[in-house]
Amino acid sequence: MSTPPAPARPARFSLAVRDSSTMLRRNLLHARRYPSMTLQLLLTPVMLLLLFVYIFGDTMSAGMGSVEGRSAYLAYLVPGILMLTIGGTTIGTAVSVAMDMTEGIIARFRTMAIHRPSVLVGHVVGSVLQCVLSVVLVGAVAVAIGFRSTDATALEWLAAFGLLALVSLSLTWIAVGMGLVSPNAEAASNNAMPLMVLPLLSSAFVPVDAMPGWFRPIAEYQPFTPAIETLRGLLLGTGIGHNGWLAVAWCVGLAVLGYFWSTSKFDAGPK
Amino acid sequence: MPASVMSTSTQGDGRPPAAVSATGLRKSYGDKTVLDGIDLHIPTGSVFALLGPNGAGKTTAVKILSTLITADAGQARVAGHDLTTQAQAVRAAIGVTGQFSAVDGLITGEENMLLMADLHHLPTHEGRRIAAELLDRFDLTEAAKKPASTYSGGMKRRLDIAMTLVGGPRVIFLDEPTTGLDPRSRHTMWQIIRELVTGGVTVFLTTQYLEEADQLADRIAVLHDGRIAAEGTAEELKRLVPGGHVRLRFTDPAAYRTAATALREATGDDDALALHLPSDGSQRELRSLLDWLDAAGIEADELTLHTPDLDDVFFALTEAAR
Fold it and tell me: Do A112 and B119 touch (CB under 8 A)?
């Protein structure tokens, strides 16, 4: 074999982009070849959506003092279900990161002159794309059963998508860290469970006002509630208030925390 | 300081520049010392075998030299670069095939190869050409479109090495490259390793098989309890243990006693009714020995020739250290 000519040393940033996109291609190949886990994680939000609309819907809407019944509750529910979809998808991310770290090829990557975090960036970008796809699929189910945005402008739609992508990004970085500290797939799935449980304890299903007093602060200030309230405001025209900034602050904070946590865990070397 | 780089990669005593050099490498996990001061000097273009039983510290040595983990103490240079301060330059010059398969099982053999080409920043057409070439060379073209997880042990190992070669590494680390392979795959792997060296690369391999070190390596170091118990060529190591001998076995005790009296320089094993005569194993010496036995009227029931091999060296060294 002829030795390939040594490529000119590219600038650090372009090296990072190039290696990250290579790693992204690898993760997308994995996801495309083995879509079962992604689809399985989609089932939970869809089931919850159908359950709460068709089985509990009348009671829930009556309990919230609505006279329009089920369709009003559907509108209330969808933003939370979309956030829950993201939470569920990122559990898949934690599991696939944990599984990937047990693979010999990760050791190989560590012995290669590549941009190190690219291994994780590939996972993150792949996961965000999966989140967006999942949100679109679950959103399509919601539209199919009658969800309509009341008065969202093009700009508000754009902001809604931006918010969903930002939440995906921040939760994914946290999920990657959870995957890195988990010795196997089962542990990763358990460790990442809060990402699916927190939306249940938010304003996704019932307003925070309807919860017991001692619990309200927890529900109100955890990351999902501001994000859900902001999305609701964008799509349905309800008041956003301070929730917009709170949501963005949570997302940026979690993304930065997750990034530094994950990269330092990964740099600490093989488990 | 380029001058100091030159002076450390070429040793002052006139030895050829080292592909790998290390002094005083130490590593311990908790209070378990795995490597207890390892010195290495591996000339460029040679095959070096680190030989030792399980748990001797072979894999730890490879992990340190391939930048996977850091040593607690000691210095090392690989391909002219310092392991701690120029790790990324070391990585650019080496290829590693670990003990456990370092292939991505979820994607195909070809995709694994193209992944390596991309990570070495080869232009697309160049990457495709090299991937196809290597797949062909390692007899994997037929299986190229199948997921690597469906490959047999030997195929996985071949893919693993093929992936290691994509970037044209100058120093290749092979950690137990034939462990777990059937005899045929093992011989294929030996052939592959021999071919690597003809291309001028340096091969650092670890093995627990003495025969493998004997077959492949220019120099062998025996690792025992975290220290190098002996180092040299296979021939040099064999000289460390008592030479070869001819073993004469008798079934009749009377014949044995007669022979023992006649052959004064032989050492006897009374229980086995066997005599050991020192011999270098040459045809000339054997013939004169047989002539002499005939003349003396001694007829053994069994004659076996024993030449010292690395097993003797290995057991001698590890016994002595115990």
Answer: yes
